[in-house]
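cron nightly-structures :: item 1 of 1
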Amino acid sequence: MNFLAAALSFDSVIVATIAAILLTLAAHVTARVLARKLSGLPMVITAIALVIVFLFIFQWDYNDYYDVAKPVFDHLLGYVTVLLAIPLAAMNFKGLPVKRLTIIVVIASAVGALLPMSLAYLFSLSHDTVLAFATRSVTTPIGLSVASLIKAPLAMANLIIIVSGLIGATLARFLFHGIDDDRAKGLALGLAAHAFGTVEAWQISHTAGRYAAFGLAVNGLLTAVWVPIFISAVTV
């Protein structure tokens, strides 16, 4: 009897997981279509809103959806980050201003970590929260790895990364008004809004998407190296 109950429970988890994947995929596809038809509509924000709408329509509790969806998408997130190597490999680096890009990425990495940490410190936030803000400018898999190394709370770091990415991706279209260079748009999105920004950059153009992937990857690698060393040196 216990075996039967366990089997039924296992089957229900599989069904719920498949339903969560389909619901999320439907929200993404719908948001993508809307973003193409309505210029300036941020796809990531639209997809999140659609997930909430779908959950409301189907009367599915968010916590139940989250419990079955999180393990799947957490697992896939690491693969997606690695797959960013594909657009990087497709980039034409001939004639690329490597020195200027290096300076930009180094400055962005330093400012992306030190500025939010300094503001958190000035507002007298807790030591753990200050450390969590060091991960603000990198994508989730890298940010959580950095948070583990510097002993920052993972939940707080995850929240900071997601919120900053959402804000950056949402405001990007408005801030880019009057800027015509897709390389600059993409690089800015990848550096400031990491994965969320990269998604939005691909909606602008392939060039913007590749430069966003470049900014996200190089900034993440650089930040993952120097932040733990800096934090350990400062806290000794």
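cron nightly-structures :: done
DSSP finds ten helices and no strands in the chain.
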